[in-house]
Specification:
Layout (H helix, E strand, L loop, with lengths): L1 H5 L5 H11 L6 H11 L3 H16 L19 H39 L23 E6 L21 H18 L11 E6 L10 H6 L4 H22 L5 E5 L21 H16 L4 E4 L6 E5 L2 E5 L16 H18 L6 E4 L6 E3 L2 E3 L8 H5 L8 E8 L3 E9 L11
Parallel strand pairs: 1-2, 2-3, 3-4, 6-7, 7-9
Antiparallel strand pairs: 1-10, 5-6, 8-9, 10-11
Helix pairs in contact: 2-4, 3-4, 6-8, 8-9
């Protein structure tokens, strides 16, 4: 191979001439093309002649001439050029989408850190598991609190004297719920004390101003409602931790449709743009500042919380996103809630999670149905329900107990109204 390459230059003078042409120039394909033009030959031949010229000048061995001659690449076809252009365009689009997602995530984390100084990791629902090998027959309590609608007013005269509501009444009813729950779990409790307590904040904690009539008649606007509701719930948490100082308390915060920060319902950032989530973060900050070590918090960004208690699976969500809406004749919301339970359970089953019970609020109607439980409300019967001739449910909330072997073993429907607030509580 080397001897054949040397033959491309016939004399030392010719070698020096070729090297003088290339002196000071970068050796690349462009040089070969230029040199070929000067020597009136092909670029590949010019390449070989340059190698041979170096041999003549340096008198080196044949090993220097084993450098393979790079073949000239073929011209790309039109189809290949279009394909490359399309791939480049798709790559640019994907980079732009990834950057927008990264910027949005960074903005959410920045707000969370700046306002609350919380962890950089977005809150996700922890899989709280309690061993099935429990020696005693202890149980876990589920306190379902939803649809407080703090900030909304219900006028007694417009309700025919049946119900009334304002910020003061909201605080009184939330206090009664915690007070009654504690009494049922202590003075009226049989067997070992509860092993664990879940406080499920299931959305619509404030009423917001998503409708024009609410903006006109609310006691408080959104920020004031968040502050008032947070103060009520902090007081209730303090009651729980005082009554059960050695029992772990897990607070799970789920967003509702009334707590949204937008006029129109949006699917993106459903939990992150909710005043209900803001209330959960506020409770967490207060608990941390006070050093409440037996209380943990979770505000899942998905808007759903999947709980594993003694192996029993509970799916906690507000109820506005169960894939079923409205009522059905005289049955009311029972039919649509049951239909929604089946859709939710089917969705999670396809992902490998078999849900035993779905827990929701939203409908202001306390019901135990096939596949799940619907919570009542703190606000109770209001003008909207009256105009639709809905059944006048009083203000009430569920408390459940979960047994290691029997699942939901005990149920208490806690009435939180007082006779001074309307005739339906007499």
């Amino acid at each position: 191979m080397a001897s054949k390459i040397v033959e491309y230059v016939k004399s030392l003078e010719e070698a020096k001439h070729i090297l003088s042409l290339c002196e000071g120039k970068r050796v690349d394909d462009a040089l070969y093309a230029w040199l070929a033009n000067q020597l009136n030959c092909k670029p590949s031949t010019a390449h070989r002649r340059l190698i041979a010229a170096k041999h003549w000048a340096n008198n080196t061995g044949p090993k220097d001439y084993n450098t393979p001659v790079k073949p000239e690449p073929p011209e790309p076809t039109m189809a290949e050029r279009l394909g490359v252009s399309k791939l480049q365009k798709n790559l640019a689009t994907q980079k732009r989408i990834a950057k927008e997602a990264q910027d949005h995530a960074l903005a959410n984390l920045t707000i969370r850190e700046a306002v609350f100084n919380l962890s950089q990791t977005p809150m996700e629902p922890p899989q709280w598991k309690i061993s099935k090998d429990v020696q005693s027959k202890s149980e876990t309590l589920l306190l379902m609190l939803s649809d407080a609608h703090v900030g909304e007013t219900v006028y007694k005269d417009q309700m025919g004297g049946k119900n009334s509501y304002n910020v003061t009444i909201a605080g009184d009813r939330i206090r009664r719920y915690f007070d009654t729950s504690i009494k049922l779990a202590t003075k009226h409790w049989s067997g070992p004390p509860p092993e664990c307590i879940y406080l499920l904040l299931m959305g619509d904690l404030i009423t917001g101003s998503i409708h024009e009539e609410l903006a006109k008649t609310n006691d408080l606007q959104e920020i004031g409602s968040v502050k008032a509701c947070s103060e009520f719930l902090i007081a209730g948490l303090n009651m729980l931790r005082t009554a059960f100082p050695k029992i772990p308390i897990h607070v799970v915060c789920i967003p509702g449709n009334h707590g949204r920060t937008t006029k129109k319902m949006e699917h993106k950032n459903y939990a992150l743009e909710s005043y209900d989530t803001l209330i959960g973060w506020t409770l967490e900050v207060h608990a941390r500042a006070m050093g409440w070590e037996n209380i943990t918090f979770s505000a899942p960004a998905s808007g759903d919380a999947l709980l594993d208690i003694y192996g029993w699976k509970f799916l906690v969500t507000h109820g506005d996103k169960i894939g079923s809406r409205g009522g059905t004749g005289m049955i009311g919301p029972a039919a649509t809630a049951t239909r929604g339970f089946q859709k939710v359970r089917a969705e999670y089953a396809k992902a490998g999670d078999n849900i035993d019970w779905v827990l929701i609020g939203h409908f202001h109607s306390q019901m135990e149905l096939e596949g799940g439980i619907v919570n009542g409300s703190i606000i109770g019967y209001n003008e909207y329900a009256k105009s639709g001739r809905f059944f006048p449910h009083p203000a009430a909330q569920w408390m459940l107990s979960v047994h290691p072997k029997r699942g939901i073993a005990r149920r208490w429907l806690i009435q939180v109204g007082d006779k001074s607030e309307g005739s339906m509580y007499e």
